[in-house]
Amino acid sequence: MSFFKKVFNLSSEKPQEKEAKKQEVHLSLDDAFVHNFLEKGGKFLYCTKKEEILIHLKNIISENQWDELICTNPELIALSKSVAIKTNGNLKQDAPFFTTCEHLIADNGDILFSSNQLQSERIASLSDHFIVYATTSQLVKNTGEGLTGIKTNCKKNIPTNISSVKNYTLNKNEDNFLNYGNNSSKDLYLLLYEDL
């Protein structure tokens, strides 16, 4: 019976059901980001209190049995000391990288970084494991808004090395020839703090 439906384009769907499927769904920035981020394999932890950040950070470290973090941000170094884990400022180490970011891109779930976090290193040359601390005020609709935000926030000293993590599943192959030799796949945890 389904063969005849395909051949003669017969459908058992009602016109209202067809119309409902055609309608576009508009998500808020945070919902769109979380949906796209999770689709790419990211691990998302939402925090409404500073204490929750510490609890989640402890759980991530314990779950993965890590004994050291790479961290260059003074505020995050202080945060990691309260979790009682050793930190190292050398980005070349193989320990997980605990960092901030510039923006969270809602329309594709990417996380935008710059030399403020990465210094002069390429994402591909850094650790396979990232823990990113971000706030809801860093959510933007698309990459263009993210770049505008960087330009606005850093008027006197615009950072370089602007790049993003696009995949949150290690060893995922991309067919995009523009990314050849620059694999930005990372096992990534996002600690998102509600600051609005």
TrEMBL record:
Pfam families: LUD_dom (PF02589)
Domain LUD: from-to ranges: 52-192
UniProt-recorded name of the protein: LUD domain-containing protein
InterPro entries listed in its UniProt record: FTHF_cligase-like_sf, LUD_dom, NagB/RpiA_transferase-like
